[in-house]
Amino acid sequence: MSRASDRAYAGIRSMILSGELPAGASLGEEALAERCGVSRTPVRDALRRLEAELLVKRNEAQRSFVADWTLGDVADAFELRAMLEGHAARRAAERMDDATLQRLRACNQTIFEAIRPQQPDITGFIEGNRGFHSIILEASGSRRLTSLLATLIEQPVIWRTAHHYGREALRRSHSEHDELLSAFTRRDGAWAEAVMTGHIRRAFHAYADAHQGLATFDMARSA
Amino acid sequence: MSRASDRAYAGIRSMILSGELPAGASLGEEALAERCGVSRTPVRDALRRLEAELLVKRNEAQRSFVADWTLGDVADAFELRAMLEGHAARRAAERMDDATLQRLRACNQTIFEAIRPQQPDITGFIEGNRGFHSIILEASGSRRLTSLLATLIEQPVIWRTAHHYGREALRRSHSEHDELLSAFTRRDGAWAEAVMTGHIRRAFHAYADAHQGLATFDMARSA
DNA sequence: CGGTGCTATATTGTATACAAATGGCTGGGG
DNA sequence: CCCCAGCCATTTGTATACAATATAGCACCG
Predict the structure, then answer these.
(1) In this complex, which of A45, A62, A76 lies closest to B144 when CB atoms are compared?
(2) B45: nearest CA partner in chain A
(3) Comparing C-alpha atoms, which of A195, A90, A89, A202 is closest to residue A135?
(4) d(Cα B32, Cα B8) in Å, to the nearest integer?
(5) What is the mean pLDDT of residues B144-167?
């Protein structure tokens, strides 16, 4: 989208995610406009988008606040993402063509390169990971599914999670992608779905472990 | 939301759904503003919302058009709805309390009253149906799930479908709700999910039959 | 005659001014 | 001392004017 509108969106979003604007903080349009160096119009636009992503909530009087995400909310999002992205993997497997398969292999190879060194390239890993998942989404051939998942994939959550990954967690992620590739190669939708579901749910537990120290957190019960 | 913004939203939406604005038609903000009797600002707001619902699409130059919904797109939406609402039913069953159960029973009784007469009260049926499903959604205890489904439940599609229902289709819908109630009473999540999934998929086929005359349309393949 | 680049025009993005509404604060009454 | 009511301040919603940008048509050059 346009410059000012994007600046407002990116600005507010990063303020929220960095904690500069803590959970529950009031989000006055005027104040945000000044902080972002734009007028209220693009700020309103940005707030609407952030509201759709549930990063911002509005009270009954249309006033905006930073949404407070409990671990349960994150679990909720991951659970739905696991289900939807599992479904996407199944559909992708059933529709897979060789060209797409090649792209996926290349993408996972990039990830491998990124995590091979002693000091893994986390940014590269995230980039490759995003590419891998978005190719699958595209291959699933459902625009609806893509649009639903867009609001569910909280890039910052992924980012924070990946930075807590150890080397063997990164490798494990890579090898799960490999298993997905096997399922895709055989056009085995059920297999692909199972692997993908597990892949996402593992990511959730990595997040939960790192952030709340609840090693035994029960996703199913809390979600 | 506010008056003018809602008027624009409702106006544009109904123009699209009534066919007054055919698929592919250009949606200039100025023109829409005039037709709705408001200024461009609320029209922009409305277009963003409609875009999120995939009723409106924008090209690379930010121009808006009426999205063309093929039967495949509708099938796509129904398939996802079946999955998500099935999931909601499972969760609701696992969390069901007696008060909610009572509300659901009352709601389904209302539906029964609406469809009993020779000339069924379709509006009453739709109203009751919406209430029934929204209670389940609420009982599922996942705000995310609710927000995802909101974009998926195209009220107008439901409306058009219900008007094509014969009396026995209405009764069937009612009795499927009854079966859901049984599953909820036993707190049997898997049962509830199965019934709900079937319930939604049946609705899709009723839609497909009525609108395209493709009695044997294969949801799984086209979706 | 076809292609490329420029210009005119239509359309969207942004800013600002103004209107409406909500919430809090203050002052008076019970 | 507490509570209620009315007013004021703050905040959001809407309209409109202006700026930026993309498209289409036309003219000119190859």
Answers:
(1) A76
(2) A45
(3) A89
(4) 8
(5) 81
